[in-house]
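# step 3/5: fold
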Amino acid sequence: MKVACVGGGPAGLYLSILLKRQDPSHDITVHERNPEGSTYGWGVTYWRGLLDKLHEHDPESARALERHSVSWNEGVARVRDAEARHPGDEGFGIGRHRLLEILSARARSLGVRLEFEHEITDTNLPVADLVVAGDGVHSALRTRHEDDFGTEIRAGRNRYIWLGTTKVFDSFTFAFVETDHGWIWCYGYGFSPERSTCVVECAPETFSGLGLDTAGEADGLALLEKLFADVLDGHPLIGRSSADGSAQWLTFRTLTNRAWSRGNLVLMGDAAHTTHYSIGAGTTLALEDAIALAGALRTHTDLPRALAHYERERKAQLLSIQSAARYSAQWYENLPRYIGLPPQQMFALLGQRHSPLLPYVPPQLYYRLDSAAGQLEALRRFKRWLGPKVARTVHARALASRK
């Protein structure tokens, strides 16, 4: 089979690796519009469950990935002068640049062609049996046929900026700072022995009240360094280079598609779906898309059946993750509802922010119920039953209101 992967991100590169491992005779080219070694962002996160899957599907790239990652097994939350540490699942961070280096080298070693500085649009689409659109949330191939894909994009309320820092966090760190214009907070995690990612978020009123809407990059970073001086231990923040050479404040765009394929064109990764960054799942979902698509193509020799199988499988697997991401984003958008709680309660509800029940139960009552559920199996079962039921009801009402 001849395959053209449009977009040289983790999804397209990993799919090319898996397909070559399944059948070395596949003719696979990855087309990337940017120069080799040029990438945006700082570090990406993933968890032990993904690493186990990668070891199963391609041990060589998994070993390299693990070798170049940093890890942690607890979360830290800081509000004013209070701090709490909570044990958690084993998490990992790796620089996006290093991740792409590893996957590119592995793909090349298997005979995949990588073509950089080669932008693909609908007018110069490669002739191939399968064209994979892994070109991100702004996918040109998806946008050209967005009516066929049934694309929907919803912008979040809060503003955020993706930064780096020389402060190396030893845990996944949340820090909340109160200002005269409302709360502002950051998520920090290490991705190398010398660097960490630091994502800063705030409500639009805080963003404008602090003057971040009009500040230049240098002034904006200086203000954020001052606000987060305690958590950064005096280390600087570093702006991400973009097309215009500056770090950009954004609003998160939640993207969904009714259909994931059109003829021999199929969507993957952020071109197909996005989930809010606060659950740290974007790279994981892209790689899992690649695993699922490779598996469907191995199981079904008929391309339409393979693409339909891939779409059904991934949509089903994404339901709970997309729900968790939606409620996590809403938790931060409604931060004043939780930030005034006693520190122990606030930190506990930070860990429960994915819950579909939390927005509909008074926070202190939820905390008491959750604490009791931790000790009584009957309450745990009731909570597991009620949460999805509430989520389905709310989702159905939201869909009905759009009609």
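# step 4/5: annotate
The mean pLDDT is 90.
# step 5/5: archive (pending)
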